[in-house]
Automatic annotation (TrEMBL):
Coiled coil: none annotated. GO terms for biological process: regulation of DNA-templated transcription. Signal peptide: none annotated. Residues 1-54 form the HTH luxR-type domain. This is Response regulator transcription factor. Pfam families: GerE. GO terms for molecular function: DNA binding. It comes from Nonomuraea longispora.
């Protein structure tokens, strides 16, 4: 992964599952700042590009658990 810390990876996984920033921020694991930082680390200009990069990099795999922490 392109230097993404665990919480930033979680942010990308939640983003890829379709959660908006408020829903992501409502988790006890990820803040809104993690979303923006993750986009920067992925070199993505927007949420859509970040999701595409997440699939390309294997951060998100179709059919995996919707919760990034594996519960």
């Amino acid at each position: 992964m392109p230097g993404l810390a665990p919480r930033k990876l979680d942010a990308v996984r939640l983003l890829a599952r379709g959660l908006n920033n408020a829903e992501i921020a409502a988790t006890q694991y990820v803040t809104r700042a993690h979303v923006g930082n993750a986009l920067d680390k992925l070199g993505a200009r927007d949420r859509t590009q970040a999701v595409v990069r997440a699939y390309d990099l294997g951060i998100v795999v179709a059919g995996e658990s919707a919760q990034p922490w594996g519960s």
